UniProtKB/TrEMBL annotation, chains A, B, C, D:
<dbReference type="InterPro" id="IPR015421">
    <property type="entry name" value="PyrdxlP-dep_Trfase_major"/>
</dbReference>
<dbReference type="InterPro" id="IPR000192">
    <property type="entry name" value="Aminotrans_V_dom"/>
</dbReference>
<keyword id="KW-0032">Aminotransferase</keyword>
<protein>
    <recommendedName>
        <fullName>alanine--glyoxylate transaminase</fullName>
        <ecNumber>2.6.1.44</ecNumber>
    </recommendedName>
</protein>
<dbReference type="InterPro" id="IPR015424">
    <property type="entry name" value="PyrdxlP-dep_Trfase"/>
</dbReference>
<feature type="binding site">
    <location>
        <position position="356"/>
    </location>
    <ligand>
        <name>substrate</name>
    </ligand>
</feature>
<dbReference type="GO" id="GO:0019265">
    <property type="term" value="P:glycine biosynthetic process, by transamination of glyoxylate"/>
</dbReference>
<comment type="similarity">
    <text>Belongs to the class-V pyridoxal-phosphate-dependent aminotransferase family.</text>
</comment>
<keyword id="KW-0663">Pyridoxal phosphate</keyword>
<keyword id="KW-0808">Transferase</keyword>
<feature type="modified residue" description="N6-(pyridoxal phosphate)lysine">
    <location>
        <position position="210"/>
    </location>
</feature>
<dbReference type="InterPro" id="IPR024169">
    <property type="entry name" value="SP_NH2Trfase/AEP_transaminase"/>
</dbReference>
<dbReference type="GO" id="GO:0008453">
    <property type="term" value="F:alanine-glyoxylate transaminase activity"/>
</dbReference>
<dbReference type="GO" id="GO:0004760">
    <property type="term" value="F:L-serine-pyruvate transaminase activity"/>
</dbReference>
<dbReference type="InterPro" id="IPR015422">
    <property type="entry name" value="PyrdxlP-dep_Trfase_small"/>
</dbReference>
<dbReference type="GO" id="GO:0005777">
    <property type="term" value="C:peroxisome"/>
</dbReference>
<feature type="domain" description="Aminotransferase class V">
    <location>
        <begin position="54"/>
        <end position="331"/>
    </location>
</feature>
Length: 410, 410, 410, 410
């Protein structure tokens, strides 16, 4: 029981020691970022905030690996960023091809349908990647270019599946198809290899609470010149999410059509500084290292990865399939109640069947080992005959061979 | 020059001493609230966040003075809250009556038009309140009930004008008109007397960065049962801002269709606790006290209030008209550059003609006197022959007579 | 490289993820406490600070398990608290018996000698507890009561040895000896079973940065009525550390002879609240649980505990002996440079021979497993043929059997 | 009523808006510094803390204007710093000349006497500066050099009197007297002109909670080479405050004989960065500007400054004499209870007769005007016939003429 400000009692909050946060978002915020955000409001019309914003817009492009894109920092969540990407580039009735491979792609498709697009859903079994052969067929048939956009989730957070975006571009090029290429990079950007310009992505988006390791509250949308052009004729109704208003204020140099979160702007500055200090490629390598270690632990436990093929393995989240006699929700519940460990639930089709370990954002090797040690204990708690230490051993063997020295300490 | 995290240099930031933040939003955040928000992310699907959310939804109704309303805490700004209020209750083509009295009502009307409503704009001179006689005429004529909603800004932040909502309700009742009553309470709620149930308001909304004294990031929308009913048939396209998704998660007891800002939830808890500790009516009385003192200072300086009649005087912001030979933007610029005082610019029609003193949120008497002392010095800086100390004297004379003891210290 | 405020570059600071702080002090500060301390200064002569201080003085007695003691919150470190304990109760030339069993008892003895007491040093091999048989002999011989005080370190942080204070009291009683019983509880109080009243301890002391889990800056000294009486005639020169000044201000109800740290007072309040919420006995049980797990890991690694007998095993710190061919400093260095893990160095006689794992303060099971996983990797890095996962497995087996549910989450 | 962590209720804490902290210490902490300190503990034996400490020791010399001095950052208060200055340079029985001009010089003299020095007290009326003619006489007579040290408070915080240290040095030189020159700079250094090397000061000291604008907890002592030499033979008993232990660890490059406050080290770094960014001479000029404005306000109110001559006027604190029919404590009480304004009480001889306005540390013009406006209201509350606005007008007239643009915003 914990009292925040006066006499409101807040249940569940305190446990001894730290919370081990291994959900695939929102993720751990580095202390440096928490400090940078611990501040009063400011007048966003003073010269200071535009000066800060200017550096952010310039630097945020680096995490998309784009030089030609135009970024927007919407005060919203990933769901809002989705809506901004769609409504600024498409008109009601437009045909789009969209891949359903798990809960988040499902939700995006639901949004696409509710926004009145004509959605051509390409479904895969949960645990598989997007069916890109189907894409090729559709493009091949679409000589009239009725398909206006391809919508794809780079990394499906529900199943731990990463789609191959380079291949999507290759197929588009192969058929010389002009469809817009819209990418949900919510659980990938800043953690997985992502190359907006090289892959010809037209709109990419992410949320501040994922690999950027901030609180929820900024939906970052980045638009290619082609997407910006499309926005001029897109007929979807939009106001809050309209790029036009932002572009107008960019031109004036005041940047904000409405009030931004001062705290998140300073937080984003600090988060980007940390990313660039570590080096974006090192950050991506670290995510691969921690993910590989996690997959080795899952193997050692004798459990199955929900992701069906290695090519789709996600470096930001691992969905672990539990034996049929176990309810995976019980694992999540028990982890939190006994070990202060926060794991991700199985969602929708895989509810009760998988639990998820999020390993994205500002994390290191020993935090992961603590988590894996905890998962082992929980597995035992719920009746799975795991050999305690086995997963940690597998992970540590890999990590001890691959972890570099911390650059600032060499 | 100030370095946030690594080698990014941030101009303009540091001055000796505190920034005196007197823009009408975002406003000063109490230290207690900054502390409550200085924290890591959490799993929003654990039992803790729903338990916290439940208390917030219950308590936030008190600031609207409603028991029958249903509140929504959108991760957005006031502009987003506007959009949510409109799209959930209305269908494209619906006729609405909307009052244009300043920049913010103008922006809302712009949004209404872009969302394809048929907006019947009732314009007043800037500095005047909404023309409610025109409303009466329109309702009188509208026997067919073609008017679906009345949209009104309770407090126009650009001119410091407060509209009389009780009268709006009276007129609606007089004509027994079923139009929805939608209110922008962005710069009023928690600061001015606001009575959702008593005045029969159907949707009221505010933003966290105004009188609630939080960072930007929560758009609070509160819907009456009638508004909820309307939302079932409203045909405006909406997904992110759709109440339906929230209501579905309310029913499940998990509350959030997508990721909220953990920090803002704890911050809102702390902000509400402070409000209730002081007492909402005391908070409103304090706003009236500080506003009265400000107006007395303006009189003493020999300057005019932009608000043309006393009945419209706003207790959250005062727009001060400067003599023609002065550019009010120069006042704002100089205040910030020399005295670390943040004042509000004149906007649009009153750009260069007024500057604004925001006196809302967690403020006290001596903060205001510091601001007024600063404004006097700036006025002199820009060539207005003010008698230094005159405004402070007028304000202090009033405050010394009216300021109560701090309850916790009696 | 990290820049704190302007252009000072700070080396070594940033690594990806959290620092794993396992030195035996200063220890991890709970976020709740960091938040409580993140505040401006206040006038310590206002009514608020005495009111707060009063609750602290009352509640701090509980961590000493005393009702008759008088606590003092000196703005100092453990070294200062030592000095306060000695100079307030003894006069130059007084004979005292003091036990040398490691670096911290050595430093205290050094202080005792420099303060001109006649120190009768009873030395043990490092790794052993205090030689209480020698104490018995000395008391037996001391019919003239020339021994004025017994000085003993409850828990020697350098070797991980806990002395048996109940036995000290038994021996004192057995010889009916009036010597004062002075105890350094720096790395024990709030973590190990400590009973000031029951054991007849005359002065006990601790530091805020140890099991209380605060920053350094409060040396807490608690005096029995007998110690207070002794302070009236003690001739050691003292001013800053004089209890008399405090007692004078206690009487006046203003409490502070000089300026306290406002932040640490609020921090102490929060730390005590967390301790009492968890329950002091549960906190002590948690320390025992984590310590037992650590010792099991050390066994599994095939390494020796520096503590020579089980009866002396410390529940707050484990000193691990490394094979002769390894320099333990290299372990500490490597842990920090590669894994962001902070371990304790071997000090003085055991420099290079042991490294230390501090497991005190606000810690939980998974944090410990992360640390143990890290130690294993470091051991392998430096050439010790450890089986990765072995220590974690041993610890987890114990912990999985013994960890209770988190009370607030049941 | 405010609850910090669990169910402890804290009275008096909350009022609407900010506390206006105008006691002469502890003073307002800049938000940048609060942020820098909002952090977990660290291992102070890692390479990071010595690297940080090294920059601090180098930079802290600048605030003393010394290149030859050796600074010590004791984890203590000003009272502890006094003790360190005395015990490291003097032996019991040593004759010292000490000036009694107010409560803080009185307390230092009390300490000197309790430390068994032979104190030759030169008393002045409270409100006057040190009687330096008496010093000249004493030195003239002391051909045998029995006087070992001159102890003087640079700025007496109780009466707002600044002594002329350059004259002290001139007199010492005139008589070619080898006495050590020990200076309490607690409420002067970083705010008043202070020149350790130029004035030949042998030990100067300050506290972190004064013009450095940090929390209480660092007593900064700076020793000249002559003082260091003296410390080798000084026979006063000391351990915690002994410079020798620090010097030993300086040589080893680990810097700390015992655990420092990690938070205060980072805070000191940020505080120094802010000072140097503003420019030490600009900081001193700002203190003079705010002090002059305060004195003009006091004149305008028709009240007397406790400081009897202009040459002694303090630029960090103004003690205001109230008419006989008013109890100055009532002013302090009322300011806090009604206006959330913290003023300094009159102490000892001037209790009830003066109240004090501290204007040191990180403050600006508008903060001061708020305070002065508040003092006026309080004066009226307690029955003094002040013309409201009169003091603010006088101060503002001066400030409007003299305040420079904020350099970072030009």
């Amino acid at each position: 029981m914990y009292l925040v400000g006066s006499d409101k009692k807040m249940d569940y909050v305190n446990g001894p020691g730290r919370n081990h946060l291994f959900v695939p978002g929102p993720v751990n915020i580095p202390d440096q970022v928490i400090r940078a955000m611990s501040r009063n409001n400011e007048d966003y019309r003073s010269p200071a905030i535009p000066a800060l914003t200017k550096t952010l817009l310039e630097d945020v492009k680096k995490i998309f690996k784009t030089t030609s894109g135009t970024p927007f920092l919407f005060p919203t969540t990933g769901t809002g960023a989705w809506e901004s990407a769609l409504t600024n580039t498409l008109s009601p009735g437009d045909r789009i091809v969209s891949f359903l491979i798990g809960q988040f792609s499902l939700l995006w498709i639901d949004q696409q349908q509710r926004l009145n697009f004509n959605v051509d859903v390409v479904e895969s079994e949960w645990g598989q990647g997007a069916n890109l052969d189907a894409l090729a067929s559709k493009l091949a048939e679409d000589r009239a270019h009725t398909i206006k956009a391809i919508c794809i989730v780079h990394n499906e957070t529900a199943t731990g599946v990463t789609n191959n975006l380079a291949t999507v571009r290759k197929i588009l090029n192969q058929y010389n198809h002009p469809a817009l290429f819209l990418v949900d990079g919510v659980s990938s950007i800043c953690a997985l290899d992502f190359r907006m310009d090289e892959w010809g992505v037209d709109v990419a988006l992410t949320g501040s609470q994922k690999a950027l390791s901030l609180p929820t509250g900024i939906g970052i949308v980045c638009a290619s010149p082609k997407a910006l052009e499309a926005s001029k004729s897109a007929k979807s109704v939009r106001v809050f999410f309209d790029w036009k208003d932002y572009l107008k204020f960019y031109k004036m140099g005041t940047y904000w059509p409405y009030t931004p979160s001062i705290q998140l702007l300073y937080g984003l500055r600090a988060a980007l500084d940390l990313l660039f200090e570590e080096g974006l490629d090192n950050v991506i390598a670290r995510h691969n290292r921690l993910a590989t270690a996690t997959r080795l632990a899952v193997d050692a436990w004798g459990l199955k990865n929900c992701t069906q093929k290695e090519e789709w393995h996600s470096d930001t989240v691992t969905a672990v399939v539990v034996p049929e006699y176990i309810d995976s929700s019980e694992i999540v519940r028990s982890a939190w109640k006994r070990y202060n460990l926060s794991l991700g639930l199985g969602l929708n089709k895989v509810a009760g069947k998988v639990f998820r370990i999020g390993h994205l954002g500002n994390l290191n090797e020993l935090q992961l080992l603590g988590c894996l040690g905890g998962v082992e204990m929980v597995l035992k708690d719920v009746g799975y005959p795991v050999k305690l230490g086995s997963g940690v051993a597998a992970a540590a063997t890999y990590l001890q061979n691959t972890t570099p020295l911390i650059p600032s300490r060499i």
